[in-house]
Amino acid sequence: MKIEQIYTGCLAQGAYYIVSGKEAAIIDPLREVQPYLDRLDEDGVVLKYIFETHFHADFVSGHLDLSKKTGAPIVYGPTAQPSFEAIIAEDNQIFQIGDIKIKVLHTPGHTMESATFLLIDENGKETAIFSGDTLFLGDVGRPDLAQKAANLTQEELAGLLYDSLYTKILPLADDITVYPAHGAGSACGKNMQKETVDTLGNQKKTNYALNQPNKEAFIEAVLDGLTAPPQYFGMNVAMNKGGYESFEEVMDKGMKALEPNEFEAIAEQTGALILDTRSAAEFHKGFIPNAINIGLKGDFAPWVGAMIVDVKHPILLVTDEGTEEEAITRLSRVGFDNVLGYLKGGFAAWKATGKETDEVKRISPETFVNEFSPEAKIIDVRKPTEYAAEHIENAYSRPLNDIAQWAGGISNDEHFYLHCAGGYRSMIAASILNKRGIRNFTEIEGGFGGIKKTEKIPTTDFVCQSKTL
Questions:
Q1: Fold of 362-454
Q2: In whole numbers, what is the pLDDT of the chain averaged over residues?
Q3: Which pLDDT score, from 0 to 100, does residue 189 have?
Q4: How far, in Å, CA of 144 to CA of 147, rounded?
């Protein structure tokens, strides 16, 4: 038997490839399925089942393309109602893969169809659980996403999650390995550990949600501190449940190299959003007016989802040459399939034509020290937990996630400084503000980390972030 965790850092997502004998199973596959097909060929095995722990909200699964290419059926937990053909398993139903078995445990709470897959090895021993978004390491799945579909409150869903965990999972043996669908950085939980694999016994000791005295305390603890989910989540659920274009079709459409004049014409005709995926260090020096910067070298896909929201919105790409395919792939993972093409030759080609360009004023932390005064207006776009842990005295907390709400209250009459932790998120914010016509600001390179190193800007006393949740 072989179990391989295929972890995608930018999504904090774990897919699983399992082989026994001449058969295989894949759990929660990513959108692009060729890597799985390559593994199957290399191992000389047949894909027997594609297991989905639930209808994912934070990424588009590759279940449909993978099923079409291999003929393997898709398996969901009880109550799932996809618009395509699938096996809707019964609670405790067993599926054979080679010499091992997968037992379906219906664990509603995160969503109503959520299932945990219990692996029973060749010797009949319960060995591992693939817990989806029911149980994370250090946390449990948020119970506020399926309220509308289930006609339940988040408190009622949290109660179901408690029952699932305490009656289906906690009674299992301590030596069982836990393979969750997500890790630290995912918006599907609030307190996840950085590790991606653990034993159930250790989770019983360390996971706050598994150490509550009763259901009422569990519900209160799990709901406490939950921030609003990204708005694109519902659209991803709809795609996972209702279907989508094949990955190859999305790639073919997006990989159109456009000369600057053609790029400009399409932007004007379609109202496409110009997404510049270069680094903040390059973007600030020059970019196409009204372009939004979300750097490819970072948590690119989740931030695209959070900032652009509408997965159907047409997009034109400006990239570092040679990274176009990667950008389209990562966009497709969160359902942004409407890429109309990319700028051939990148920003340099645009600039060479003499077309209009724009820039963001960016200064070093040392320059900020020289310009700083106690009266300076400073906007900190980090998460509330980061801000609560430590921030520049008198700085305003304006999380990037909420920029659509707070940007309207910014005035061009008063200059302000803008920073995040390291410069990635603040440049996203800078480009969005710039697109809205707000230009009287200066972004700080290196963010709070760089500012802190100068030791010359007054900050609040540090508080461990785990205590601010």
A1: Oxidized Rhodanese; domain 1 (3.40.250)
A2: 95
A3: 81
A4: 6
What is the signed CA dihedral for 140, 144, 149, 152, rounded to 10 degrees? Answer: 100
Identify the pLDDT of residue 187.
85
pLDDT value at residue 467: 33
Q: Is residue 466 over pLDDT 50? A: no
Pairing mode of beta strands 13-20, 23-27: antiparallel
Instruction: Provide the CB-side half-sphere exposure for 322 (13 A, CA).
Output: 0
Rounded CA gap, 275 and 267, in Å? 11
* Other C-beta atoms lying within 10 Å of the C-beta of residue 337: 23
Axis-axis angle for helices 300-308, 424-435 (nearest 10): 30
- Give CA–CA dist 405/420, Å, rounded: 18
pLDDT band with cut points at 50, 70 and 90 for residue 28: very high
Q: At what angle do helices 324-333 and 300-308 cross, to 10 degrees?
A: 60
pTM: 0.93
Residue 469 in this model has a pLDDT that exceeds 50: no
Please provide the CATH number assigned to the domain covering 2-234. 3.60.15.10
Q: 3.90.79.10, 3.40.250.10, 3.30.70.660, 3.40.50.970: which CATH number matches 245-353? A: 3.40.250.10
